[in-house]
Write the structure tokens for this entry.
Amino acid sequence: MADASPRTALDDVLDDERHRHTRFVVYSDDPPTDVEHALASRNATVARRDLPRGCRTDFVVVERDGAFAGALGLAELRHLLTPPVVRPDDPDDAAPGYRALFDVLDDTVFTALTRRSLHVVSREIEERAYRVGRGALHVTFQTERTFAAQRDVYEVLCTETALDVHLYSPDEWTIPVPAGATYHETTAACAPYWALAFRHDEHACGLLAREEPDGFRGVWTDDAETVARIAAGIECDCIARDTA
């Protein structure tokens, strides 16, 4: 049966990101590990090769759309993929292989991610927004109850920074919104989405996920253009009515 739910601007963002292709080639003589599974869950192709003669350290080659993008040690990659996923605020300070991977994963597509994992990524984005202290933060909440559990976090963001905070939900909230935040009631079409967009010229980052029967599918990104599209998609699907 075809999906009868209305199409949103956020669907367009997800479709565009899913069409981008990343390939990881793992060079190792050991059996496959959880790293391969973690990479596959990000909608990437994973291949394995034996270590070249004379090489004693396992490593990974990263390709984006058929072109070489970088390489780094398998141990480094395992550390990178272990939550919480922490990216450097200034990737230019990172080692070349590490920087190459971040260039590829600026739009990290994932499949079947759990709510717990999304909470980890969301907290990373919130913490970056807090550290920078300026810019605009757009966040959707599927229910008022979800926001209630995190209200203290947004109280701090609104009182201790100069952030322009916008909160979105299909629920009509009764819980007080932190002073300095703007609440928008959205259409029901936005209910399946978990989205954060921190807009900033130098430190932009965002998360967009859609809830599906087997988990959440989507993308988290440090690409400023993609973050802007996520924020614009949220605003496009938002009812033009503020209650705070």
User: Anything to note?
Assistant: The radius of gyration is 19 Å. Helices lie at 9-18, 34-40, 74-80, 96-104, 115-132, 144-148, 151-160, 224-236.
